[in-house]
């Protein structure tokens, strides 16, 4: 997923890049270009997950790389 600055004067970046940058170079905040569509069944399923899996699932909604889910869960387990 690609994120853009709220001020519109910085280049769009993927999630991984924005996590290491914080705010955009133009002083704006990064926002996703598109938000995931709400899904009641998905939301209900998230409520039953252990915390680390819940965090990984929420992040995966904004990181569409195929390896993102397992990599995120591994990073959370190490934290």
From TrEMBL:
SUPFAM superfamilies: Tryptophan synthase beta subunit-like PLP-dependent enzymes. Coiled coil: none annotated. Residues 3-63 form the Threonine synthase N-terminal domain. InterPro entries: Thr_synth_N (IPR029144), Thr_synth_N_sf (IPR037158), TrpB-like_PALP_sf (IPR036052). Pfam families: Thr_synth_N (PF14821). It comes from the Bacteria. This is Threonine synthase-like protein.
């Amino acid at each position: 997923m690609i994120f853009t600055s709220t001020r519109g004067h910085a280049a769009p970046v993927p999630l991984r890049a924005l996590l290491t940058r914080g705010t955009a170079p133009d002083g704006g905040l990064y926002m996703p270009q598109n938000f995931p569509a709400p899904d009641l069944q998905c939301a209900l399923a998230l409520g039953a997950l252990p915390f680390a899996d819940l965090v990984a699932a929420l992040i995966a909604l904004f990181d569409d790389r195929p390896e993102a889910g397992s990599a995120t869960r591994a990073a959370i387990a190490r934290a």
